[in-house]
Amino acid sequence: MSALPQLQRTSGQIRTETRFTGIGTGETTSRVRRETRGAKSGFYIRFGKRILDTAGALAAFVIVSPVLFLCAVALRLESRGPIFYRQWRVGQHGRLFQVIKLRTMVQGADKRGPKITASGDPRITSVGKVLRKTKMDELPQLLNVLRNEMSLVGPRPEVPEYTLKYSLAEKKVLDVKPGITGPASLAHINEERLLASRTDKEHFYVTTIMRRKLQIDLAYCRRVSFFEDFKIVLLTVVALFVPADFNAKGVKTPPCVNSEKAGLEVEGPGRS
Length: 272
What we know:
Number of domains: 1
Helix content: 40-55%
Radius of gyration: 18 Å
Distance between the termini: 24 Å
Strand content: 5-15%
Strand order of the largest sheet: 1-2
Shape: globular
Order of helices and strands: HHHEEHHEHEHHHH
Number of helices: 10
């Protein structure tokens, strides 16, 4: 049996699991209602964001095409394997799509180690280290934006097995289209360095980092606007040119989230 039907069933579980037990009354009920509130709606959400995504992705793709070509040549010369890496992720409303990235690891890396990858992982190629540090491996996702699978700005898409771990409140992040960059990505831009010191990388990511990122993304979903997206794009550009110890001060995070102790989405055999 192919992997795709299995993933589709997984996606169905994501969309249909709606029960949330253990809810009390009074203040607790009010808190849950606030947390499970979906993304705001308006002209920008319904029409403007897609128009800007298409125009922005087209312009960016033209500009970065020479860079992508050079990256592809470097990958081909350094190691065996495909230039691009495709992986199933969960998109808006639980729909599955294949995210596209430049390959940064040796061929068959998913069979040689854990899903989560940290700084110093021996499976990362020399060219891959540069691509990951500069985030150039994310550039092919402009194609995902043009295919209306992603947005320029939004929550980073997760793999199905991690999305199944979302609570009812956290699943509201699937109300909006996933993005190439977003507030959680900026607040956790040094994530791989943080994970490098952990022996329980996957457990720590799922129980701690992913929860922090979801809180930030849920806050973004409730205030999506042109100015918010424009600010995040500018902050992303700044982060790319000043990557060392970047502090996303312009990104609003919930009080319980310490963005200085976390760090961009992990990329590994299961997520790269």
